[in-house]
Structures are given as C-alpha cells and as structure tokens.
Amino acid sequence: MRIIADLAAARLILPDAAYCVSNLVRTLRDRTRRSHEVVLSIPDNKPYDPRPFPKGLWRVTGLDWQREKGFDSGTYGPVKIRTDAWQHVNVWELDADGDYLRETEKQVQDLGYWLHYSASVTTLGCIRFARPEDAIGAAEAVAEALKHEGVELEVV
Known about the structure:
Structural class: alpha+beta
Strand order of the largest sheet: 1-2-3-11-10-7-6-12
Radius of gyration: 16 Å
Number of strands: 12
Oligomer: single chain
Number of helices: 3
Largest sheet: 8 strands, mixed, barrel
CATH class: Mainly Beta
Number of domains: 1
C-alpha cells in the first residue's frame, strides 16, 4: 500500500481515506523554539535545529500504540506510525550554558520521523494528525496493510 503525505495541501491520503495533517516544526529559524530547548539528533545525539519531515519515498516500519508502550500521549497521541525517513542536519555548537550558539557546517544523519497526533500544533519534524481519532484510523489501515504487504509513504 502507498500513502501520500501532501504537506502543502495538509493531507495524508490513504487508498480509502484522507486525513488532515500538518508539519509545523519548532525551530530557531522561525523563532518557535527557544535557544535553551536543545534538540539532539537520533542516533548521534548531536545538537541541531529541527527540520521538516524529509520529502521522498519512505517505508512505514511499524506502529507503537500508547496503550502498549505507555509513552506520553500529549506528545505522541494514541499511536506513533514509525518510518525509516531520515535526513542530514547541521550540527550546532552550544554555549557555556548549554544553549544554541551557532550552526556549523558539520552534518549528521537524523532519524525518528514519525506520523502521530500531538496536543501541540508543532512537532520536531514529524507529521502531525489534526485529531487523535485520525491517527487511530490511519494506524488501523496501516496495521492491516502491514500484515499482507509493505507500506510506502510518499512525502511531497
């Protein structure tokens, strides 16, 4: 199954349904992130300024349900749809207080781009469902498809 995340249209399109999504990222660049809210890359734990979900063709690698994993439902909603999406991000130097100081030319790979609901309207790069019920509906369709075939996510 292929699902399409059209970020400009704010839609996640599945074969039998469509959901409202967003990809508003808390960043230093647009002043929605404060300098002391340092974000670390996955897996290298290097400070970077979050970027939007990378465009391209990715695989959905699984589902994490809040009821089973016990993660923070305010941050991730009822379910996380995991992907293999990644991108290179620039590492930032930190000042003596541990705040962002300046961006460097050094790059690292960043993983951990998911689809989920959040009580916040912004994310650290993940695609956010507008409603928790939408996340559940999409996840149920993905779960069924994962039983029989792979699931591709095309981000445009």
